[in-house]
Protein backbone atom coordinates (compact mmCIF):
# COMPACT_ATOMS: atom_id res chain seq x y z
CA UNK A 1 0.00 0.00 0.00
CA UNK A 2 1.20 3.51 -0.80
CA UNK A 3 3.11 4.78 2.23
CA UNK A 4 3.00 8.33 0.82
CA UNK A 5 -0.44 8.56 2.44
CA UNK A 6 1.24 8.80 5.86
CA UNK A 7 1.32 12.10 7.73
CA UNK A 8 4.74 13.71 8.30
CA UNK A 9 6.36 12.09 11.32
CA UNK A 10 7.12 15.40 13.07
CA UNK A 11 3.76 16.62 14.32
CA UNK A 12 2.41 18.24 17.47
CA UNK A 13 -0.35 16.54 19.48
CA UNK A 14 -2.09 19.92 19.77
CA UNK A 15 -2.36 20.17 15.99
CA UNK A 16 -4.45 16.99 15.81
CA UNK A 17 -6.51 17.36 18.98
CA UNK A 18 -9.23 19.92 18.28
CA UNK A 19 -10.73 21.08 21.57
CA UNK A 20 -14.00 19.32 22.34
CA UNK A 21 -17.15 21.42 22.56
CA UNK A 22 -18.34 20.44 26.03
CA UNK A 23 -21.71 22.12 25.38
CA UNK A 24 -22.58 19.11 23.25
CA UNK A 25 -23.07 15.50 24.26
CA UNK A 26 -20.14 13.12 23.80
CA UNK A 27 -21.08 10.93 20.81
CA UNK A 28 -21.57 7.18 20.84
CA UNK A 29 -21.89 6.90 17.07
CA UNK A 30 -21.99 3.16 16.42
CA UNK A 31 -19.53 0.68 15.01
CA UNK A 32 -19.24 1.58 11.35
CA UNK A 33 -17.94 4.47 9.31
CA UNK A 34 -20.45 6.38 7.23
CA UNK A 35 -20.27 9.13 4.62
CA UNK A 36 -22.91 11.37 6.22
CA UNK A 37 -21.34 11.87 9.69
CA UNK A 38 -17.82 12.42 10.90
CA UNK A 39 -17.23 9.73 13.47
CA UNK A 40 -13.93 8.40 14.79
CA UNK A 41 -11.03 9.48 12.59
CA UNK A 42 -8.59 6.60 12.97
CA UNK A 43 -5.82 8.33 11.02
CA UNK A 44 -6.09 11.32 13.37
CA UNK A 45 -6.15 8.92 16.33
CA UNK A 46 -2.96 7.21 15.16
CA UNK A 47 -1.17 10.50 14.56
CA UNK A 48 -2.26 11.89 17.92
CA UNK A 49 -1.06 8.86 19.88
CA UNK A 50 2.26 8.75 18.06
CA UNK A 51 2.77 12.50 18.53
CA UNK A 52 2.05 12.19 22.27
CA UNK A 53 4.58 9.36 22.51
CA UNK A 54 7.22 11.32 20.57
CA UNK A 55 6.68 14.40 22.75
CA UNK A 56 7.04 12.31 25.92
CA UNK A 57 10.21 10.70 24.54
CA UNK A 58 11.68 14.11 23.66
CA UNK A 59 10.96 15.37 27.19
CA UNK A 60 12.76 12.39 28.75
CA UNK A 61 16.43 11.42 28.80
CA UNK A 62 15.70 8.33 26.69
CA UNK A 63 16.74 7.85 23.10
CA UNK A 64 14.08 5.30 22.17
CA UNK A 65 11.18 3.20 23.44
CA UNK A 66 11.25 -0.60 23.22
CA UNK A 67 7.80 -1.98 24.10
CA UNK A 68 6.62 -5.50 24.86
CA UNK A 69 3.41 -4.30 26.54
CA UNK A 70 0.64 -4.85 23.98
CA UNK A 71 -1.13 -1.65 24.97
CA UNK A 72 1.99 0.44 24.31
CA UNK A 73 2.57 -1.41 21.03
CA UNK A 74 -0.93 -0.46 19.90
CA UNK A 75 -0.46 3.13 21.09
CA UNK A 76 2.72 3.51 19.02
CA UNK A 77 1.84 1.48 15.93
CA UNK A 78 -1.96 1.02 15.79
CA UNK A 79 -1.36 -2.71 15.31
CA UNK A 80 -3.05 -5.49 17.24
CA UNK A 81 -3.51 -9.20 16.54
CA UNK A 82 -5.93 -10.20 19.26
CA UNK A 83 -6.33 -11.07 22.92
CA UNK A 84 -4.33 -14.29 22.59
CA UNK A 85 -1.11 -12.29 22.26
CA UNK A 86 -1.61 -10.44 25.58
CA UNK A 87 0.54 -12.72 27.75
CA UNK A 88 2.90 -14.23 25.16
CA UNK A 89 5.63 -11.54 25.16
CA UNK A 90 5.97 -12.41 21.48
CA UNK A 91 5.38 -8.99 19.88
CA UNK A 92 7.49 -5.88 20.33
CA UNK A 93 7.83 -2.37 18.95
CA UNK A 94 10.60 0.21 18.79
CA UNK A 95 10.29 3.99 18.51
CA UNK A 96 13.86 5.15 17.71
CA UNK A 97 14.25 8.86 18.36
CA UNK A 98 12.15 10.83 15.87
CA UNK A 99 12.04 7.93 13.41
CA UNK A 100 9.04 5.86 12.41
CA UNK A 101 7.91 3.13 14.83
CA UNK A 102 8.90 -0.43 14.02
CA UNK A 103 6.89 -3.49 15.00
CA UNK A 104 7.97 -7.13 15.15
CA UNK A 105 4.92 -9.32 14.85
CA UNK A 106 3.93 -12.95 14.84
CA UNK A 107 4.81 -14.59 11.54
CA UNK A 108 2.47 -13.65 8.72
CA UNK A 109 0.91 -10.81 10.74
CA UNK A 110 3.92 -8.74 9.67
CA UNK A 111 3.08 -9.33 6.00
CA UNK A 112 -0.53 -8.41 6.69
CA UNK A 113 0.53 -5.10 8.23
CA UNK A 114 2.60 -4.27 5.16
CA UNK A 115 -0.46 -4.82 2.96
CA UNK A 116 -3.15 -3.17 5.07
CA UNK A 117 -1.50 -0.63 7.39
CA UNK A 118 -0.72 2.57 5.43
CA UNK A 119 0.35 4.25 8.67
CA UNK A 120 3.38 1.92 8.90
CA UNK A 121 6.57 3.25 7.37
CA UNK A 122 8.31 1.38 4.59
CA UNK A 123 10.45 -1.38 6.05
CA UNK A 124 8.97 -0.94 9.54
CA UNK A 125 6.93 -4.15 9.83
CA UNK A 126 9.01 -7.22 10.63
CA UNK A 127 8.38 -10.84 11.48
CA UNK A 128 9.87 -11.49 14.88
CA UNK A 129 9.71 -13.74 17.89
CA UNK A 130 11.97 -13.94 20.94
CA UNK A 131 10.90 -17.24 22.50
CA UNK A 132 7.30 -17.07 23.77
CA UNK A 133 8.22 -16.71 27.43
CA UNK A 134 10.96 -19.32 27.33
CA UNK A 135 9.22 -21.99 25.26
CA UNK A 136 12.10 -21.50 22.83
CA UNK A 137 15.08 -21.26 25.19
CA UNK A 138 17.44 -18.26 25.01
CA UNK A 139 20.23 -20.56 23.83
CA UNK A 140 18.46 -20.77 20.45
CA UNK A 141 19.72 -17.24 19.78
CA UNK A 142 16.43 -15.50 18.95
CA UNK A 143 16.89 -12.90 21.67
CA UNK A 144 20.51 -12.31 20.71
CA UNK A 145 19.53 -11.67 17.09
CA UNK A 146 16.70 -9.36 18.14
CA UNK A 147 19.03 -7.33 20.38
CA UNK A 148 21.50 -6.91 17.52
CA UNK A 149 18.72 -5.82 15.13
CA UNK A 150 17.42 -3.29 17.65
CA UNK A 151 20.93 -1.96 18.24
CA UNK A 152 21.44 -1.52 14.49
CA UNK A 153 18.26 0.59 14.22
CA UNK A 154 19.33 2.73 17.16
CA UNK A 155 22.69 3.31 15.47
CA UNK A 156 20.93 4.22 12.22
CA UNK A 157 18.90 6.89 14.05
CA UNK A 158 21.83 8.16 16.09
CA UNK A 159 20.41 7.25 19.53
CA UNK A 160 22.49 4.19 20.38
CA UNK A 161 24.49 6.15 22.97
CA UNK A 162 21.36 7.24 24.83
CA UNK A 163 19.44 5.08 27.34
CA UNK A 164 16.89 2.71 25.85
CA UNK A 165 13.52 2.84 27.63
CA UNK A 166 11.78 -0.53 28.07
CA UNK A 167 8.29 -1.06 29.51
CA UNK A 168 8.25 -4.78 30.44
CA UNK A 169 10.84 -7.40 29.56
CA UNK A 170 11.99 -10.97 30.18
CA UNK A 171 15.31 -11.14 32.03
CA UNK A 172 17.16 -13.04 29.24
CA UNK A 173 16.15 -10.36 26.72
CA UNK A 174 17.35 -7.66 29.09
CA UNK A 175 20.72 -9.41 29.35
CA UNK A 176 21.07 -9.62 25.55
CA UNK A 177 20.38 -5.89 25.19
CA UNK A 178 23.03 -5.14 27.79
CA UNK A 179 25.49 -7.38 25.93
CA UNK A 180 25.25 -5.08 22.89
CA UNK A 181 26.14 -2.12 25.15
CA UNK A 182 22.69 -0.63 25.60
CA UNK A 183 21.78 1.09 28.85
CA UNK A 184 18.26 0.05 29.85
CA UNK A 185 15.89 2.35 31.72
CA UNK A 186 12.21 2.22 32.66
CA UNK A 187 9.92 3.55 29.90
CA UNK A 188 6.57 2.68 31.42
CA UNK A 189 6.31 5.90 33.41
CA UNK A 190 7.12 8.01 30.35
CA UNK A 191 4.58 6.16 28.21
CA UNK A 192 1.89 6.48 30.87
CA UNK A 193 2.57 10.22 30.87
CA UNK A 194 1.88 10.22 27.13
CA UNK A 195 -1.33 8.24 27.46
CA UNK A 196 -2.90 10.38 30.23
CA UNK A 197 -4.71 12.89 28.00
CA UNK A 198 -7.21 11.52 25.51
CA UNK A 199 -8.19 13.18 22.24
CA UNK A 200 -11.68 13.40 20.75
CA UNK A 201 -11.40 10.02 19.05
CA UNK A 202 -10.29 8.22 22.21
CA UNK A 203 -13.08 9.83 24.23
CA UNK A 204 -15.63 8.80 21.59
CA UNK A 205 -14.39 5.19 21.62
CA UNK A 206 -14.52 5.08 25.42
CA UNK A 207 -18.05 6.44 25.34
CA UNK A 208 -19.09 3.92 22.69
CA UNK A 209 -17.66 1.12 24.86
CA UNK A 210 -19.64 2.40 27.86
CA UNK A 211 -22.82 2.55 25.75
CA UNK A 212 -22.43 -1.14 24.98
CA UNK A 213 -22.31 -1.92 28.70
CA UNK A 214 -25.42 0.24 29.27
CA UNK A 215 -27.24 -2.28 27.09
CA UNK A 216 -25.74 -5.29 28.85
CA UNK A 217 -26.97 -3.98 32.19
CA UNK A 218 -30.51 -3.84 30.82
CA UNK A 219 -30.13 -7.54 30.00
CA UNK A 220 -28.73 -8.32 33.46
CA UNK A 221 -31.59 -6.43 35.12
CA UNK A 222 -34.10 -8.56 33.22
CA UNK A 223 -32.23 -11.84 33.89
CA UNK A 224 -31.86 -11.43 37.66
CA UNK A 225 -34.28 -13.92 39.17
CA UNK A 226 -34.05 -16.96 41.46
CA UNK A 227 -32.40 -20.00 39.88
CA UNK A 228 -30.15 -18.08 37.49
CA UNK A 229 -26.45 -18.60 38.19
CA UNK A 230 -23.75 -15.95 38.34
CA UNK A 231 -22.05 -17.88 35.52
CA UNK A 232 -25.22 -17.72 33.37
CA UNK A 233 -25.20 -13.94 33.57
CA UNK A 234 -21.50 -13.82 32.68
CA UNK A 235 -22.08 -16.11 29.69
CA UNK A 236 -24.99 -14.05 28.38
CA UNK A 237 -23.20 -10.72 28.90
CA UNK A 238 -20.08 -11.99 27.14
CA UNK A 239 -22.06 -13.20 24.13
CA UNK A 240 -24.05 -9.95 23.99
CA UNK A 241 -20.92 -7.79 24.08
CA UNK A 242 -19.31 -9.66 21.20
CA UNK A 243 -22.55 -9.31 19.23
CA UNK A 244 -22.41 -5.55 19.83
CA UNK A 245 -18.84 -5.29 18.55
CA UNK A 246 -16.57 -5.84 21.54
CA UNK A 247 -13.06 -6.91 20.59
CA UNK A 248 -12.15 -8.25 24.05
CA UNK A 249 -14.35 -9.22 26.99
CA UNK A 250 -11.56 -9.23 29.52
CA UNK A 251 -13.58 -10.12 32.61
CA UNK A 252 -17.03 -9.90 34.13
CA UNK A 253 -17.33 -9.98 37.88
CA UNK A 254 -20.63 -11.38 39.15
CA UNK A 255 -21.00 -11.40 42.92
CA UNK A 256 -24.21 -12.18 44.80
CA UNK A 257 -25.65 -12.93 48.21
CA UNK A 258 -23.19 -13.95 50.91
CA UNK A 259 -20.30 -13.58 48.45
CA UNK A 260 -20.66 -9.77 48.44
CA UNK A 261 -18.68 -9.19 51.62
CA UNK A 262 -15.72 -9.37 51.40
CA UNK A 263 -15.54 -8.63 47.67
CA UNK A 264 -13.92 -11.66 45.92
CA UNK A 265 -13.41 -10.03 42.45
CA UNK A 266 -14.64 -13.04 40.44
CA UNK A 267 -17.74 -15.11 39.59
CA UNK A 268 -18.94 -18.63 40.39
CA UNK A 269 -21.83 -20.96 39.64
CA UNK A 270 -23.76 -19.73 42.70
CA UNK A 271 -27.53 -19.66 42.25
CA UNK A 272 -29.26 -16.29 42.58
CA UNK A 273 -31.80 -16.31 45.44
CA UNK A 274 -34.73 -14.07 46.45
CA UNK A 275 -33.57 -10.98 48.31
CA UNK A 276 -29.95 -11.24 47.15
CA UNK A 277 -27.90 -8.12 46.73
CA UNK A 278 -25.72 -8.60 43.68
CA UNK A 279 -23.13 -6.48 41.92
CA UNK A 280 -21.37 -6.82 38.59
CA UNK A 281 -18.35 -5.32 36.82
CA UNK A 282 -18.15 -5.41 33.03
CA UNK A 283 -14.58 -5.09 31.72
CA UNK A 284 -14.38 -5.13 27.94
CA UNK A 285 -13.05 -3.05 25.07
CA UNK A 286 -14.18 -1.54 21.81
CA UNK A 287 -11.35 -0.81 19.37
CA UNK A 288 -9.04 -1.41 22.32
CA UNK A 289 -10.66 1.15 24.65
CA UNK A 290 -11.76 -0.28 27.99
CA UNK A 291 -14.70 -0.16 30.30
CA UNK A 292 -14.75 -0.74 34.05
CA UNK A 293 -18.38 -0.36 35.05
CA UNK A 294 -20.01 -1.67 38.25
CA UNK A 295 -23.69 -1.78 39.03
CA UNK A 296 -25.55 -3.21 42.07
CA UNK A 297 -29.04 -4.75 42.02
CA UNK A 298 -31.34 -6.50 44.43
CA UNK A 299 -33.41 -9.50 43.43
CA UNK A 300 -37.12 -9.09 44.10
CA UNK A 301 -36.79 -7.10 47.31
CA UNK A 302 -34.30 -5.28 49.52
CA UNK A 303 -33.83 -4.99 53.26
CA UNK A 304 -33.21 -1.72 55.05
CA UNK A 305 -29.57 -2.75 55.62
CA UNK A 306 -29.05 -3.37 51.89
CA UNK A 307 -30.75 -0.12 50.93
CA UNK A 308 -28.67 1.84 53.46
CA UNK A 309 -25.44 0.34 52.11
CA UNK A 310 -26.42 1.41 48.61
CA UNK A 311 -27.30 4.93 49.67
CA UNK A 312 -23.93 5.28 51.41
CA UNK A 313 -21.99 4.00 48.39
CA UNK A 314 -23.91 6.46 46.22
CA UNK A 315 -23.16 9.33 48.60
CA UNK A 316 -19.44 8.59 48.51
CA UNK A 317 -19.29 8.37 44.72
CA UNK A 318 -21.34 11.50 44.22
CA UNK A 319 -18.99 13.43 46.50
CA UNK A 320 -15.96 12.27 44.52
CA UNK A 321 -17.59 13.08 41.16
CA UNK A 322 -18.38 16.58 42.39
CA UNK A 323 -14.71 17.04 43.29
CA UNK A 324 -13.38 16.18 39.82
CA UNK A 325 -12.26 19.19 37.79
CA UNK A 326 -9.01 20.40 36.22
CA UNK A 327 -6.43 21.50 38.78
CA UNK A 328 -7.77 19.35 41.62
CA UNK A 329 -5.38 16.83 43.16
CA UNK A 330 -6.18 13.13 43.35
CA UNK A 331 -5.66 13.37 47.12
CA UNK A 332 -8.71 15.65 47.30
CA UNK A 333 -10.79 13.06 45.47
CA UNK A 334 -9.54 10.20 47.65
CA UNK A 335 -10.39 12.22 50.76
CA UNK A 336 -14.07 11.94 49.79
CA UNK A 337 -13.95 8.22 50.56
CA UNK A 338 -13.86 6.44 53.93
CA UNK A 339 -10.70 5.10 55.49
CA UNK A 340 -10.14 1.35 55.37
CA UNK A 341 -11.12 0.86 59.00
CA UNK A 342 -14.47 2.55 58.39
CA UNK A 343 -15.52 -0.24 56.01
CA UNK A 344 -14.15 -3.05 58.17
CA UNK A 345 -10.77 -3.54 56.48
CA UNK A 346 -7.50 -3.82 58.39
CA UNK A 347 -5.54 -1.27 56.35
CA UNK A 348 -5.46 0.60 53.05
CA UNK A 349 -3.62 -2.21 51.25
CA UNK A 350 -6.42 -4.66 52.06
CA UNK A 351 -9.00 -2.04 51.07
CA UNK A 352 -7.24 -1.16 47.80
CA UNK A 353 -9.60 -1.30 44.83
CA UNK A 354 -12.75 -0.77 46.91
CA UNK A 355 -12.69 3.03 47.24
CA UNK A 356 -10.71 3.58 44.09
CA UNK A 357 -10.20 5.51 40.88
CA UNK A 358 -8.17 4.59 37.82
CA UNK A 359 -7.52 5.89 34.34
CA UNK A 360 -9.10 4.16 31.36
CA UNK A 361 -7.72 3.86 27.85
CA UNK A 362 -6.09 1.01 25.97
CA UNK A 363 -5.35 -0.48 29.39
CA UNK A 364 -7.74 -1.02 32.29
CA UNK A 365 -5.53 0.77 34.80
CA UNK A 366 -3.89 3.94 33.49
CA UNK A 367 -3.21 7.28 35.13
CA UNK A 368 -4.49 8.64 37.38
CA UNK A 369 -4.69 6.03 40.14
CA UNK A 370 -6.78 7.44 42.99
CA UNK A 371 -6.69 5.73 46.38
CA UNK A 372 -5.97 6.54 49.99
CA UNK A 373 -3.13 4.01 49.67
CA UNK A 374 -1.12 6.16 47.24
CA UNK A 375 -2.81 9.50 46.59
CA UNK A 376 -2.58 11.24 49.94
CA UNK A 377 1.22 11.48 49.83
CA UNK A 378 1.70 11.40 46.04
CA UNK A 379 -1.16 13.31 44.42
CA UNK A 380 -1.53 13.83 40.67
CA UNK A 381 -3.17 16.92 39.21
CA UNK A 382 -6.37 16.20 37.29
CA UNK A 383 -6.36 17.61 33.75
CA UNK A 384 -8.92 18.20 31.02
CA UNK A 385 -9.05 15.21 28.69
CA UNK A 386 -8.35 12.59 31.35
CA UNK A 387 -10.81 9.69 31.47
CA UNK A 388 -11.08 7.56 34.56
CA UNK A 389 -13.40 5.40 36.62
CA UNK A 390 -14.46 6.05 40.22
CA UNK A 391 -15.53 3.10 42.37
CA UNK A 392 -17.10 2.87 45.83
CA UNK A 393 -18.04 -0.10 48.01
CA UNK A 394 -20.12 -0.23 51.19
CA UNK A 395 -20.69 -3.38 53.25
CA UNK A 396 -24.17 -3.76 54.74
CA UNK A 397 -24.79 -4.09 58.46
CA UNK A 398 -26.23 -7.60 57.90
CA UNK A 399 -22.62 -8.81 57.64
CA UNK A 400 -22.74 -10.27 54.13
CA UNK A 401 -24.48 -7.95 51.65
CA UNK A 402 -22.68 -5.01 50.05
CA UNK A 403 -23.20 -2.31 47.45
CA UNK A 404 -20.74 -1.44 44.70
CA UNK A 405 -21.08 1.47 42.26
CA UNK A 406 -18.72 2.67 39.55
CA UNK A 407 -18.95 5.61 37.20
CA UNK A 408 -16.65 6.49 34.30
CA UNK A 409 -15.98 10.21 33.90
CA UNK A 410 -14.44 12.42 31.24
CA UNK A 411 -12.72 15.51 32.65
CA UNK A 412 -14.08 18.63 30.93
CA UNK A 413 -12.88 22.24 31.08
CA UNK A 414 -14.83 22.94 34.28
CA UNK A 415 -15.82 19.59 35.79
CA UNK A 416 -16.52 16.13 34.46
CA UNK A 417 -19.05 14.26 32.35
CA UNK A 418 -20.36 10.84 33.48
CA UNK A 419 -20.52 8.39 30.54
CA UNK A 420 -21.85 5.30 32.38
CA UNK A 421 -25.59 5.87 32.03
CA UNK A 422 -27.46 2.80 33.31
CA UNK A 423 -29.68 4.22 36.13
CA UNK A 424 -27.98 4.03 39.52
CA UNK A 425 -29.13 6.94 41.65
CA UNK A 426 -31.37 4.56 43.60
CA UNK A 427 -30.97 0.82 44.27
CA UNK A 428 -32.50 -1.02 41.28
CA UNK A 429 -34.81 -3.89 42.27
CA UNK A 430 -34.94 -6.52 39.52
CA UNK A 431 -38.17 -8.51 39.08
CA UNK A 432 -39.72 -6.77 42.08
CA UNK A 433 -42.32 -8.66 44.13
Write structural notes for this entry.
- The chain is an alpha+beta fold and 433 residues long.
- It folds into two domains: 3-195, Creatinase/prolidase N-terminal domain (Creatine Amidinohydrolase, Chain A, domain 1); 200-430, Creatinase/methionine aminopeptidase superfamily (Creatine Amidinohydrolase, Alpha-Beta Complex).
- Helix content is 30%, strand content 19%.
- The protein has eleven helices and 16 strands.
- The strands form three sheets. A six-stranded mixed β-sheet has the order 4-3-2-1-5-6, sandwiched between helices. Strands 7, 8, 9, 10 and 16 form a five-stranded mixed β-sheet that branches. It has a five-stranded antiparallel β-sheet with strand order 12-11-13-14-15.
- Strand 14 (402-411) and strand 15 (416-418) form a beta hairpin.
- Helix 4 packs across helix 5 (171-179).
- The longest helix has 24 residues, at 200-223.
- Mean pLDDT is 94; it is low at 1-8.
Total count of helical runs of at least 4 residues: 11
Give the CA-based shape.
globular
Top CATH class of the largest domain: Alpha Beta
What is the CATH topology of the largest domain?
Creatine Amidinohydrolase
Distance from first to last alpha carbon: 62 Å
Structural class: alpha+beta
Q: Estimate the helix proportion, in percent.
A: 25-40%
Q: Domains counted in the coordinates: how many?
A: 2
Amino acid sequence: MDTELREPHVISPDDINPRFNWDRAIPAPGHSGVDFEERVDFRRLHNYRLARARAALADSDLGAFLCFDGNNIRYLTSTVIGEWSRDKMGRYALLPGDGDPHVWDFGSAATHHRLYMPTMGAGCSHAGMVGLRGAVPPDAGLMRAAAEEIKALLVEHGVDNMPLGVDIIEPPMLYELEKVDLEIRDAQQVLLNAREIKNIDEITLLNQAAAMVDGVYQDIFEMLKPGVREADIVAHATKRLYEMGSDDVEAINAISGERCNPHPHNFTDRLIRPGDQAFFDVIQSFMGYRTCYYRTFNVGRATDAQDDAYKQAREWIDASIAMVKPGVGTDQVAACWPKAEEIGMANEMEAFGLQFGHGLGLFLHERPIISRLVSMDNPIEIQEGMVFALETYCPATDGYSAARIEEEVVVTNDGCRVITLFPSMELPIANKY
